[in-house]
Amino acid sequence: MSILVTGSAGFIGFHLSKILLEKGFHVTGIDNMNEYYDVSLKKTRLAELKKVSETFNCSYVFHEVDIYDQEILYNIFKDNNFDTVIHLAAQAGVRYSITNPKAYIDSNIIGFYNILEAAKKFETKHLLFASSSSVYGMSDDVPFSVDSNTESPISLYAASKKSNELMAFSYSHLFNIKITGLRFFTVYGPYGRPDMAYFKFAKSIDNGNPIDVFNSGDMKRDFTYIDDIVSAIMLMVESPPKNIKHNSSTSNAPYRIFNIGNNNPVSLNRFIQIIEENIGKSANKNFLPMQDGDVPITFADISELQSEYGFQPETSIEDGLKKFIAWYKKNY
User: Fold this and answer.
1) Which CATH number goes with the domain that contains 69?
2) What is the pTM of this model?
3) Which residue range is the domain that position 155 belongs to?
């Protein structure tokens, strides 16, 4: 099977591409290698993917491409007969979207439109795309069900992801494209993004620098270990969803949305405590009020994923952070 992974030099894209190659898939990866965070980490991931492809004698072809460029994107689709497209490329970051909104319009809106058009034009059999738990906004209707209200995103990042879901549904309905949306819940683990809280906390605590703790740490997140995220995606790659389920009663669009989370929110204070225990140092905490764009809790209802695939997350926050800190100590 030939698979396109957009954002394959990114955190989730790297781990997914690695597993795909180990299982014998032929993977084409694209990434624009932007400088939102340290490009050297992205290059390290790509070097690792090259090693894996050589070890397992599978094809991994990488293109440094921006999905904003429709012509180049079309050429890649034209030259390959992709069975599946897994779209993970996006401008990430809730807080960054407040000060740099155009990056989100270019990548997350126009770039996603280009992916949808390419999937339509070249008759992609199954398109999976990354959404986010941020679409639930400040909802207190927990746990968040795939049918919960998502009409009040509180950041442009969240709004762009909600827009992706609406655009994808329209294309699925109009052109009968099999599309699956993946709402990720706070993904963490080795090779993770340096702008994420767990990575910044580990680095600051290790170096003896203070950490900013917003809302006095009185927030909860459904932290999801990267291996569980990849396991869920692989289930859908190897067996696309069969049952159509969405809020519209008048459309037979082959479109699904799934939450992928740990189904077990953890307080920010407990999260920091586990990092302290694994680093072997105490944090110097700088308590601050809630930031714009932040939400008090995320909590994934994964019953749809359990019902369709029998999925069950396997990594506790204690084990996941232990693995991340071990990787961090080895590499930093």
Assistant:
1) 3.40.50.720
2) 0.95
3) 2-331
